[in-house]
Structure formats: C-alpha cells, structure tokens
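Researcher: Going back to the complex we discussed earlier. I've cleaned up the inputs and rechecked each line, so this should be the final set. Can you rerun the prediction on the complete assembly and write out the structure?
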Amino acid sequence: MKKMHSTGIKFVILALLFALVFFGSFWVGRYDVSPLQTLRILADWLLRTLSRGRLALTQTWQVRAQAVVLNVRLPRVAAAALVGAALSTAGCAYQGMFRNPMVSPDLLGASTGAGFGAALALLLRLGYGAVTGLSFTFGLLAVLLAYLISRVSKIQMTLAMVLAGVMISSLFTSGTSFIKLVADPTDQLPAITYWLMGSLTATKARDVQFAAWPILAGLVPLWLLRWRVNLLTVSEAEARSMGVHTGRLRVVVVLCATLMTAGSVAVSGMIGWVGLVIPHFGRMIFGQDYRKLLPASSLLGAVFLMVVDDLARTVTTSEIPLGILTSFVGAPVFLYLILSGGTQREH
Amino acid sequence: MSIEVKNLRFCYGARPVIGDVSFTAEKGELLAVLGPNGVGKSTLFRCLLGFLKPVSGEILVDGKELGAYSRRELAKKLAYIPQSHTPAFDHTVLDSVLMGMTAQLGVFEQPGQAQREKAMQMLRALGIEKLSSRGCMKISGGERQLMLLARALVQDASMLIMDEPTANLDYGNSCRVMERVKKLGQAGYTIIFSTHDPNQAFSYATKVLALKDGGVMAVGAPEAVLTEDVLSRLYGIPVARCEMETAFGRKTICMPVPGGTEGA
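Model: Rerun complete. Updated structure for the full complex:
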C-alpha cells in the first residue's frame, strides 16, 4: 500500500508542476505583464466566460496587456499543453499496441499525411482555415489508407499496418517534396518549410478550438480504456484468452491516436520526438502499468511542450521553430536511452 | 466442467494439420497431450481456445458449442497458460496477475481493491507473494510459470489449457509446477496440458491423448495406453518402460534405449 501512496504523491507533484508551468508560461515573452495582473486578467476572462458576460473583475490592467494575455499567450499556452499531451499520449498508446517501445505516433503516416495536406493548402493559397482543415483531413486519410491496406493484406495485422504506414508515409513525404518543388520560392516555399518545422507562433483561439475536439475525442476514450491497453502488450493469444477483443481494441486505439495526432499536427505543424521520448520518462517514473502511465504521459507531454515553447520564444531574438527544439532535446535523450538500455528488459 | 471434442479437423490452407480427433476431458481430469514436434498439439489448443475455426467437427464446452460463447464468456470457462510469456514491457507480477481478471470487469472498469486482494491471495497460495512488485521479466522461469498459473486461477475458469507448461523449466521447477497442477486437478479443475516428456503423463495425468500424423494414436489411462510399442511408434525411437519401486510406491517410468531394436 506504500507503493500506491507514492504514486499518489508523484501525481500531485506532476499536477502542481503542470499548473506552475501553465501559469508561468503566461509571463514569458517580450511584453511584460506582472504575474498578478496575468492572474487577474485570466480570472476576469474565466468569470466573464462562465457567467456569459454578466460578471467581471474591476479592470486594473492595460488593454494592451489584456490583448497580449488573452489573444496571444492563452491560445499559445493552451495549444502547447494540448498538443504535448496529445502527441505523448498517442505515442504511449501506440508503443503498447505495437508492443514496441521505439514507436512514435506518426508510425502510420498521420503526421506526414497532415504535412502534405497543409503544404497542398498553402500551394493552392486556400487561406488560413483550409491549412488546418486539409492538414487534419489528410492526416486521417493517410492512416485510413494504411489501415485498409493492412486489412486486405494476408500478413499479420500489426506488421502489415507498420509496413503500410511506412509506405504511405514515404508516399506523402514525396508528395510534399513535389509541392515544395513547384511552389513559388519567394513566398510559398518559405511558408511551407516553416510550417513543416512546427511552430505555435501564429496560434489563434480558433486553432485551439479546432484542435481541442479531435484531441479530446481521442484522449478521453484512451484514458477510459487504459487498463485494457495493458493487455495489448502481452501476446495476442494470452490477451484473447483473457476475454479481450484485441482486434476491436486495436481499431479503437489507432482511431484515438490518429485523431489526436492529426488534430495536433493541423495546428502546430510537425513536432517530432515528443510522442517517442515522453512516454519513456513516464515509464521511468511511473512504471509500465497503463493505468498510471497513460495519464502521466499526458501530463508530462503537456509540461514538456509548454517548456519547450517557452524556450522557443525566449532563447533567441527571433523564434526557433518547435520541431527543431524538440529534436535538439529529443535526439540526445533517445541516444541515452539506447545506450543505457532504457527501461526495456535485458535480452 | 467438461470439454468434448468430436471428429475435429483443421487445415492451414490446403495442408491438413488435424484430421479427425475426438476425445473428452471431464471435471478433475488431467489430460496429457503427447506427440512429436509439429503434430498439431498447439493447433489443437488454438482450436480449443476458439482462435482457429476447425474445418469440421465439434467442440462442446459444458455441452454448448464453442462458437456460441462470447470472448468474455469463454474466458470465464477456459484459461490459457502459454509456453512462454514475453510481454513487450516489464509489468510487475501483481499487474500481470490482475490482467487475468479483465473479463470480470466492465469495458471501462479498472481492477480495484477487491481484485488486488484476490490476486495477492492467489500469489500467497502459490508461495510467490514476495515477488508481487517485481518485474515479471526479472523473476526465474519457474516463478514466472507460477505467476501465469496465478493469473489463470484468478480468471475463475474451471478449465486450464497449458501449452508445454514445463518446457523452459529445470528438473526441480518442472516437478514443482506439475505438483501444483496435479493438486488443481484434485481440487476439481479440468486440465489439458501438452508435454514432450511421457514420464509426466505417467506421474501426473489421469488420461493421455497421443497424437500421430494428425490423428489420434491412442487415448485412455496412461498406464494402459502408453505401452512400449505405442511410445516407440509415437516418437520413432525404441522406448523401454518399466516399473520402479520407490519410497513412495510403485512408479511407471520410460526411457529411450538408443541402439536397441524396436520391440526387442
């Protein structure tokens, strides 16, 4: 029972850390707003939203400060938390389902598909909303294709899915390269390239609203089913003999993870490594049980991406794309995991 | 709890693996399945667990056709103990045992205090409660087999299907695991296990099913059915059988006699 106790404490610490980083991220940036003002602005906003405009705090802050906090920083911090949680949870679920700790959420082509969709929208100059919309659609489409191919194929389902995913990913990557080739090098090409690097610079409230739905639609079922994800990590025969419909469960996991990944990439662009590395930290701290691991990965992912985004805004005078920073952090950590044997058992 | 198999046939594509196998296993019986490599023991088990659909024939579990059970219902009748357990991640022993209770939980439900207590009780009964928080890949093969046994027992199924339960165990551990299995049979479980050691059939089984070339070569009480002739033909080597006086009474044992001629 002592063990349960320590898990509870770890979760309390993690939740506190989340709250700290969440609010802390509001006063990171060039425009100076004091912590107290920030909290007042947020409280005022929350009050007005919940009471539908009937209640408000006395305004003791500048209009400019309010605009910065609510229109720039709130969407950005919320997006970082959502995307971080989504990518990390999706990766965590995939690692269990594919019985492989080296798997990331873009395994089946969700990210490359979404990247292609965004590049296509930028090429066709379809406008800002279409970039998000097409990106999300193509992310789903890529995984749907991989799934259908694996259904038709005669080889074992998960292996077929991985192979089909690799093929589909490569196809969409080539498609994106082709779009870059024909894009106008003065404005379109930089826009596409920058988008693909992943960034939350231009995130608006409507982006967050758009991404929140698929992300929550994936996150909630996975949280509810997290005990059963454990059973996907033992052999197929064992799981089935214990009464689990492994086939159905796999489809649900793939669907949830895809919704989360495509929703994330649609607003943030390609942000690598989060879905691969963060679950490993979760495993080190909370162990292998998905009852604890999945919520822990969500929270850790959110904290991680908020911190990285804070760095992206402050380290240099011009912003560094998030995708580059997560790789700078993720790759060495991954290398360390490989060299140290990670949390995996010895062979 | 009983299982009845009637005229079972199974093919992988055009290749017949099991042709016309019939047998029954009643409550309290320990059925040993013997046969050379590749004879279809694992395939038979996969049919019994409902993973493979036989080409023809019937499998009746408690008088009801196997296909009529849902996965969850079947999990409450049959528990499966695999030959080896290699999860992708190193779950603790307690969590591994808790997995056995999944069929008793709702789809979104998680094991709670009651399940944890039941799992611990089972680990205690098998003498491995000290391992509960250890990683299941960091314990010995014998301990892992006992853990799988605990997992099968908390599943509340009255029939156990064990695929070579002692394949990876040393001399002492295989004996200890089989003694446990024998006690479970005496406690009323129906147990079907496969083995490559005919002596295990003599020591523990109440009934034996010898498979050869996809069909049944012999079925019945081990002492009566496993004659020198049957054993020799089953494995294609000369086998001698004898009675041995031990401190615990007369035991039947057999051994291969290389260099000897069949039936000599």
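Model: Worth noting: Residues 2-30+62-340 of chain A form a domain with the ABC transporter involved in vitamin B12 uptake, BtuC fold (CATH 1.10.3470.10).
Researcher: Good, that matches what I expected from the previous run.
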